[in-house]
């Protein structure tokens, strides 16, 4: 029998301000828990502190969130949350009304919520943002949350998370470069070990080792083959003196041997 949400979810409001509120959510699900579709009444930036959860914002579409991530939930969005392995999570939530979002990040909103390009997005937080989130949480735990500091850290975390989403959104050239790196890695593996009976799983494992943030070398892009004007052909002296003579002129083999 399913447990009611009140039995496995605990919510607290840690801060109420004019720009945003900050909440603390603890989820302790068990395997029999079945979550329902929810509708967000506010815009939320979820900042996991521990555990893991999955946000489903559409059919066959979801993002996994861990303490390295920030997740955006827009006002009016229908979504469902699940918990891989029934581990549960602890999370700080930055809750913003449409008015608060318009004051803080007007360029990143659409109508009353986050811009459509942000929906369903998960940002990987840089170390500085993870430290700021930890500092914010520590101040709440110690009951030392000064309103000015809370708002300064909260706005910084929101801006940092939005910036991370924009930076992680690959453009056409980045996608092409990433595909090219994958192809080259597979070609390298097969050519260096042609005697090995490769499988798709092994080749996929090689691609997983590539760093997706390393840019494709600019010198490797553009047209392939010879660039610029055609090269000049240089023949040994006397090579064409007698078209019917098949003999190789003396020294021609040394001239073009590279030795």
**Count of helical segments?**
7
Question: What characterizes the major β-sheet?
Answer: 6 strands, antiparallel
**What is the N-to-C succession of helices and strands?**
HEEEEEEEEEHEEEHHHHH
CATH superfamily of the largest domain: Jelly Rolls
Q: What is the residue-averaged pLDDT?
A: 76
Counting structural domains, the number is 2
Using the coordinates above, name the CATH class of the largest domain. Answer: Mainly Beta
- What CATH calls the topology of the largest domain is Jelly Rolls
Q: How many strands in all?
A: 12
- CATH structural architecture of the largest domain: Sandwich
Question: What distance separates the N and C termini?
Answer: 83 Å
Estimated radius of gyration? 29 Å
C-alpha geometry: elongated
Residue fraction in strands: 15-25%
Assembly form of the protein? single chain
Strand order in the sheet with the most strands: 1-2-9-4-7-12
Low-confidence stretches at least 5 residues in length (pLDDT < 50)?
219-233, 255-259
Counting helices, strands and paired strands, the structural category is alpha+beta
Helix content: 25-40%
């Amino acid at each position: 029998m399913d447990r009611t949400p009140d039995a496995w979810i605990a919510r607290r409001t840690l801060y109420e301000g004019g720009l945003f509120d900050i909440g603390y959510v603890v989820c302790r699900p068990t395997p029999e828990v079945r979550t329902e579709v929810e509708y967000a009444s506010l815009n939320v930036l979820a900042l996991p502190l521990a555990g893991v959860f999955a946000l489903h914002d559409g059919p066959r579409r979801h993002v996994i969130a861990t303490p390295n991530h920030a997740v955006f939930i827009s006002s009016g969005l229908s979504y469902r949350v699940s918990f891989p392995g029934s581990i549960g999570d602890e999370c700080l939530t930055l809750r913003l009304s449409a008015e608060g979002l318009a004051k803080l990040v007007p360029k990143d909103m659409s109508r009353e919520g986050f811009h459509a390009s942000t929906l369903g997005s998960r940002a990987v937080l840089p170390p500085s943002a993870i430290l700021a989130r930890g500092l914010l949480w520590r101040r709440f735990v110690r009951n030392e949350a000064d309103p000015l500091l809370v708002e300064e850290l909260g706005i910084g975390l929101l801006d940092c998370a939005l910036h991370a989403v924009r930076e992680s959104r690959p453009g056409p050239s980045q996608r092409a470069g990433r595909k090219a790196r994958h192809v080259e890695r597979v070609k390298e593996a097969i050519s260096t070990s042609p005697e090995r009976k490769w499988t798709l799983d092994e080749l996929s494992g090689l691609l997983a080792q590539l760093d997706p943030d390393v840019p494709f070398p600019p010198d490797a892009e553009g047209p392939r083959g010879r660039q610029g004007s055609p090269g000049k052909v240089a023949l040994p002296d006397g090579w064409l003196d007698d078209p019917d003579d098949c003999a190789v002129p003396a020294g021609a083999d040394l001239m073009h041997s590279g030795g």
